[in-house]
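Re: duplicated header lines in exported structure tokens

Our pipeline writes sequence and tokens for each protein into one text file. With two proteins the header for the second block appears twice in some exports. Here is an export where it did not happen, for reference. First protein block:
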Amino acid sequence: MHPILHNRKHLAVYLAVWGILTGLLGTLPVWTQDLGWKEAMLLFLPLGIVLAFMSLGSWYTVRISPLGKIGWWRLSCTLVVSTLVICGIWIILGSGWVRVIAQLPGWGELPVRFQRIVPFFFGIGALLYGLAIALHYLFLFFENSKAAEHRALTSQIMARESELKALKAQIHPHFLFNSLNSISALTSSDPRASREMCLLLADFLRKSLRYAGEQTVPLAEELDLAEKYLAIEKVRFGERLRYECQAEEGGMDLPILPLLLQPLVENAVNHGISQLLEGGLIRLEVRITDGKLRIAMENPCDPERKSPARSGFGLSLVSRRLEEYYGEESHLIAENRAGRFRVEISYPIQVPAR
């Protein structure tokens, strides 16, 4: 749509500025004594408004001749031809208007005087039309910039959504790989425990798939899934695996990313409990401080094991998901001290919609 015609305020400002420019330029023949004040104003003001509306058509000329996208020769020819056509039509309309005025008493000499200023009249038309072309090129620049910004923003949003979906898609295969390995190990040594683990795994997957496509879920459901996973692993580890959760009651309805705790629980079991003959206690703490939800997972670990050179798959996955959703306001801190491994995540509280 035309950037001026679709907005009444833009059109009013455009006509006002155009009228002022036409009035100022129309005074030049007065100073050269080719026209009087009344003749100049009666001639230029109405014709100036006509040229203003004619010049709005330069928008379409500009759109088919964008700067930098066509050759300079073609661009120059297009603009010169359009200027000649518009100014030629304007002179014809001006001649007709002069003949109409000449019918009034006392204005019979106006056609002769108009003939003397036709070159000047043409020059004014070319100048004003050139300004209109420049204005419309400016409008086109802003329109293209806005469109490019919108496309970039849309592309960025789609890329972020695609990456989040890809990150979520990595969770289940990783978890299934570990769980099926455990079931396979129990098949020969403890078939009953293997069957029990299969049932628990089926229940876990049924509940997790129910909301895996959601952007966020209540914290209570995420904690319930964590407990179901630990119940699956307890079949394998028995009394070696113990679990304790301390959570503030007011935080159970707060939103959390689906399966965000799953990699942390897996990490606590696979790199903590499974490495110790006596097993140990996995402790989960949920606190609300300074407008943030803070979740800490702590588990025993072999104090003699070497610290990994970089974060494992699970912690990297959690960190990336937090960063994608909450940006710099989220944090993940992992510490290994005196035989205890602790991971704490924090992110701004978002009150769930009621």
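Second protein block, exported in the same file:
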Amino acid sequence: MARLLRAGQRLPSTRTLAGDLSLSRITVLNAFDQLLAEGYVESRVGAGTFVASSVPDELPARPSRASSPAGSDRKARRRGSYRVDDVARHEPGPWFRGRGPFSVAQPPLDRFPWRVWSRLVARAARRLDSELLHYTGPMGYKPLREAVAEYLRTSRAVRCEADQLMVVGGAQHALDVSARALLDPGDPVWIEEPGYFGARRALSLAGCRLVPVPVDEEGLDVESGIARYPRARAAYVTPSHHVPLGVTMSASRRLRLLDWARRSGAWIVEDDYDSEYRYGSQPITSLQGLDGDSRVVYAGTLTKMIFPSLRLGYIVVPPDLIDAFMAVRRATDFFCPIFPQVVLTDFIREGHLGRHIRSMRKLCESRRTALVEAIAHEFGEELRILGDRAGMFLATTLPKGCDDRAVASEAARRGLWAPPLSECYLGRARLRGLVLGYGGFDEETIRAGVRLLRQVVDATRVNSGRRPVR
């Protein structure tokens, strides 16, 4: 049917066609008008309507899969940029594709004050005015920036004013904006080894050269970084709660890192991951709060304290870089949606955030204890626990001979979502184990998950030819 009419061929009149098809003439007229607007037909005064002469007789045919030679699909696949292709080749494994026991990014949603939040949402909707419906500045809703700045000054000892604070769509967005504003393609950047895979992806997409720097019980080994690449353009760190080992950077390492940045003119991107959830002591002072030379860009998220789909985070930008960060923002997404910012402002200012964090800190401590005890009960001394003093996850090593990727894949098949430690290394993995999230799961779910994990570890060792140890 698609080839019955050729370029220049005269079409029947609208009256004739309406009669032949038993349609309203208005319907046919509308169809002709649409074809005329899209350039498929042309009207000639006194002569009628014709198929447009610019329409080719033959259009390129779409090859079918059945007729394609074997393997030709892959060769003919169209590609994007080299940087995107490289990131796509390192997509996370199946352990990141589900949501359930041991998911790392799961906060305690079962205890979130939904009634309070719903009431604030309804109130904000009633008082919306036209100003909140327009485009706004790239830094974000000013009342929210003021509320977050006050919170950071009192709880994290961050040196900031509202004018320095940019509202972004979560911590990952903060890393993307920071990389674009601070770095050029090819710039060397220190990253923690092991470290947060999301930071590696954001920096790789910006074209940076990644320089892995080892992490020990004191955090990033600054001297090792200086020995490997003293003139790096920036360093990405999680000093308050390292991802994934959970260690805290020592005071001496913090001061040495700041001294290196000042002397070399480098930037430090501080990702303050899970800093609010610390057990047995007060939260650690931010690295940015110790910085007297404005070398630290401080990034954080509100989704881990509230709920993930909120997608709101922040960047505290050094004063002389504000214009650069705003330029990046204007060139990408302009600003975050305003309505959630309005609701969150009220949530913070009325004290609900502070109460929620205090409650969640106690809850997460209880859930952490349940996980540690369950691991000890099921595995004895076979698993060594790492980084259980803060955050909503901990890491464990696996028994000798266990492939952590094989264990994580089998666990995902059985409904447990625990990423392998080896996934967190850019180079050769020094530790092999699992990262176990506990914040979003009650004690019984945690204990049942550890019992199932015991079965997974035993099954994986049997399949690899090793006997389970009991």
